[in-house]
Backbone:
């Protein structure tokens, strides 16, 4: 039970913010319910006064009824407006919270979930929850109240008839509840399948060029179709259960009314009930039947919303990236220090990527990481940026452990060009400006010149105002890398990390850029990760990483003399280039 409560906690935390408005809606619901039942009482008395031909009473009651209507209409209007406000505001808050979680959560949360599944949670799950808030919740607030007030009046009017007509109600509620139970399970399954389908669709869009080159169209089409068919078949099962609810609704609707007409008619003939009383009873039956009638739908809507809420809650329960308060100092000896660091993505040291890893990078030093693919070079960068935490050991950046750093301050002082470059579908100017939003126009031009992309940009008809398309397909791989380098150097940080940042350039262009960069980044700490040895001959120190540890280190010439791993990797590349 406790576990079940905790599942909805986060969602409730968001709903709770607008609870005051909901409270006002609840109070107005009670008022409207009371006025509606009171109006029925007036109608009964007006009918009886008409039958008795009591003109004075008839007129007086009519004025009273109009007076009630004058209260009822504005109360209903304000209630509807406030409820709409509550529903819209709650949904907006939910959207904001979910977006916040997506942006501020640790990177591993994003990495382990498919993009399409996230989109599905933000759209279809949220619209199911929205459906519950915008209709079912309103009905839940009004109908039980009017039911209770109406019931009190009905008992007061004729308790025997109330008892008879209510006999059928518990049975019908039970049937509706049992039939709609599987809807929750089926909806959760269907939503999971939709998430999966969206993820495949996202893969198709992102990987369309791979799909075309490797002729995978049919394979992906089939995969997408199969996934759609699975969610269709789950949807069908859920629809079948929902269809079963229809006859239940009809029985609920007709049964009590027929009983009232039968027993009430007999009582009027025996003068145990006035005609106005019978009319009032038939009207009251509408009040009693309405919630019964919509109950299966409300239960259904609740079950669907409960299933969707579980999926939303998985996002909402995600913790924000933990950050310390340390803002750093300008005085430090080492830019980066790894002390006996063990790290595994799976929190299992048997599968550690870094094993007892030790490294010290002096301030202003230019170093390069080399090693076979998958040995952990990019992982070191993620750890320096505090994106992951080591299971053992300590990582210090600018002399302060990453766990104590305020991550914004830390990342502000480090510029990174990753292997997977992402440029936003925006102008080239804006894409460079993301490096430092306060940069001036001249600084942006300067950064473009240093990364040797200025000439190309100026050759475009719209220059810096050229819009990059999604996936930056309208620029080449090399141009993309140069724009990303311009963005990084605009940052003016203490440490620059280039992770395969120039891999798409030919050797000459690469050497030119590196020369320009080493001139303009004088005195800064530079970490280069590369598979191309020609580009790192002039760094101060080369670190060779093998099986999660520092296997060798030294200058290019020292390492060649050692005839170890570096020598093997270097000669293998040289041979490849010669072939
Ligand atoms: N987010 C992740 N979740 C789980 N495992 C990961 C993740 N990122 C990397 N790995 C694994 O960690 C290991 C090291 O990866 P890393 O990207 O650091 O290697 P690398 O040396 O930079 O490789 P390359 O030279 O090919 O870029 C690899 O075995 C990789 O599969």
Residues:
């Amino acid at each position: 039970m406790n576990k079940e409560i905790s599942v909805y906690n986060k969602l409730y935390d968001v709903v709770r913010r607008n609870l005051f408005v909901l409270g006002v809606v609840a109070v107005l619901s009670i008022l409207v319910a009371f006025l509606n039942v009171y109006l029925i009482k007036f109608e009964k008395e007006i009918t009886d006064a008409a039958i008795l031909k009591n003109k004075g009473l008839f007129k007086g009651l009519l004025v009273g009824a109009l007076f009630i209507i004058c209260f009822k209409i504005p109360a209903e209007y304000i209630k509807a407006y406030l409820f709409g406000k509550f529903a819209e505001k709650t949904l907006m808050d939910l959207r904001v919270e979910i977006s916040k979680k997506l942006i501020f959560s640790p990177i591993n949360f994003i990495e382990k979930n498919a993009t399409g599944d996230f989109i599905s949670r933000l759209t279809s799950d949220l619209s199911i929850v929205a459906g519950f808030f915008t209709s079912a919740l309103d009905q839940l607030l009004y109908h039980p109240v009017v039911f209770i007030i109406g019931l009190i009046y009905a008992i007061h009017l004729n308790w025997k008839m109330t008892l008879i007509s209510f006999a059928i109600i518990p049975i019908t509620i039970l049937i509706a509840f049992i039939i709609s139970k599987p809807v929750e399970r089926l909806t959760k399954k269907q939503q999971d399948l939709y998430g999966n389908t969206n993820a495949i669709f996202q893969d198709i869009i992102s990987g369309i060029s791979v799909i075309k080159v490797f002729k995978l169209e049919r394979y992906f089409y089939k995969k997408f179709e199969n996934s759609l068919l699975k969610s269709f078949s789950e949807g069908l099962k859920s629809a079948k259960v929902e269809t079963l609810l229809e006859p239940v609704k009809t029985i609920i609707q007709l049964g009590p009314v027929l009983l009232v007409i039968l027993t009430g008619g007999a009582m009027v003939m025996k003068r145990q009930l006035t005609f106005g009383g019978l009319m009032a009873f038939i009207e009251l039956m509408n009040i009693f039947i309405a919630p019964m009638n919509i109950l299966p739908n409300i239960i259904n809507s609740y079950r669907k919303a409960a299933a969707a809420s579980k999926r939303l809650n998985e996002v909402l329960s995600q913790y924000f990236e933990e950050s310390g308060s340390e803002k750093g100092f300008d005085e430090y000896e080492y830019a980066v220090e790894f002390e006996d660091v063990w790290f595994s993505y799976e929190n299992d040291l048997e599968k550690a990527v870094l094993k007892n890893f030790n490294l010290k990078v002096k301030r202003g030093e230019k170093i390069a990481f080399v090693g076979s693919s998958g040995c952990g070079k990019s992982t070191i960068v993620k750890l320096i940026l505090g994106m992951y935490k080591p299971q053992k050991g300590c990582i210090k950046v600018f002399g302060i452990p990453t766990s104590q750093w305020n991550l914004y301050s830390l990342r502000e002082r480090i510029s990174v060009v990753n292997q997977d470059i992402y440029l936003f579908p925006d102008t080239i100017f804006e894409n460079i400006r993301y490096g430092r939003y306060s940069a001036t126009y001249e600084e942006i031009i300067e950064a473009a010149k240093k990364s040797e992309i200025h000439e190309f940009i100026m050759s475009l008809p719209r220059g810096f105002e050229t819009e990059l398309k999604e996936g930056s397909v309208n620029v080449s791989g090399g141009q993309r890398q140069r724009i990303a380098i311009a963005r990084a150097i605009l940052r003016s940080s203490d440490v620059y990390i280039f992770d395969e940042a120039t891999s798409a350039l030919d050797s000459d262009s690469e050497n030119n850029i590196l020369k320009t960069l080493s001139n303009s980044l004088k005195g800064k700490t530079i970490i280069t990760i590369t598979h191309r040895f020609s580009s790192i001959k002039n760094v101060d120190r080369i670190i060779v990483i093998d099986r999660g540890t520092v296997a060798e280190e030294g200058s290019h010439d020292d390492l060649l003399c050692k005839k170890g791993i570096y020598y093997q990797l270097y000669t293998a590349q040289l041979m490849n280039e010669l072939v």
In short: DSSP finds 18 helices and ten strands in the chain.
